[in-house]
Amino acid sequence: MYDVGTRKRALALLAQGRSLNSVSKETGISRHAIRSWQIRLEPSPRIAPTDPGPPADEAAYAYLLGLYLGDGCISAHPHGGYYLRIACAAAWPGLLQQCREAIAGVCPGIGVYSVRKQGCVVVTSYSRHWPRLFPQHGPGRKHERRIVLEPWQQAVVDARPWEFVRGLIHSDGCRITNWTTRVVAGERKRYEYPRYFFTNKSDDIRALYTGTLDGLGVEWTACARDGDPFNISVARRASVALMDLHVGPKH
């Protein structure tokens, strides 16, 4: 027999997104017992959650919104609540840390954990409030449906535009070095220059990105790469300098 504290601890580990197997190994409790407690003790999903109110940290929310629109998703837990998952490239430990910090900033005290997949790490967190904080959640792929910010979200982006741009670049963007050649005094010379790319199939998400850049005075162009027309380039020196100052490359 297990006391209530032991049961709640096991359920709290599950609420962090842990699997039954990992919780069972850590606590020494059988998977069957943990599953039965989960079914009996978790609130009904039909009970409406309390509105969490505005994000605790607007800068963290603007950044996390960018990450979510690029490489995030929300999925329902079978017994209530939701998982927020942000897929991050495993090659960028700084990105993983910033993602975790942003989630903690938006919902202080919430559990955040990482699951390593092939070529990426999925940063995950459980809460009943994720659909309220990210109302763009819905069935199907983002580029196959309308993506429109709520007025309160747009107000956050307007107040924290660089954090929003940074989140979009850190999810679906990159900073690269381009090169070209020119003939100078009869001699062909190679020149290199930095450039930012953002690639997303959603017309709405690209419009949110370019509209924010317009407000920041960053010049951009739409271009195609490998026949794919879903790319936004920032290449002019002054605009790249602004992006370097406020966004920078992934690390």
Care to describe what's here?
- There is one protein chain.
- This protein has helices at residues 4-15, 20-27, 31-41, 58-71, 93-106, 130-133, 151-159, 161-172, 203-216, 237-246; strands at 72-76, 82-89, 112-117, 120-127, 173-184, 187-199, 221-225, 228-234.
- With 251 residues, the protein is of the alpha+beta class.
- Among the domains are: 4-39; 169-246, Homing endonucleases (Endonuclease I-creI).
- The longest helix is centred in the N-terminal third of the chain and has 14 residues, at 58-71.
- What is the architecture of the domain at 169-246 at the second tier of CATH? Roll
CATH topology of the domain at 169-246: Endonuclease I-creI
> Main sheet, how many strands, which sense, barrel?
4 strands, antiparallel
Spatial strand sequence of the major β-sheet: 1-2-4-3
| Proportion of beta-strand residues | 25-35%
Backbone shape = elongated
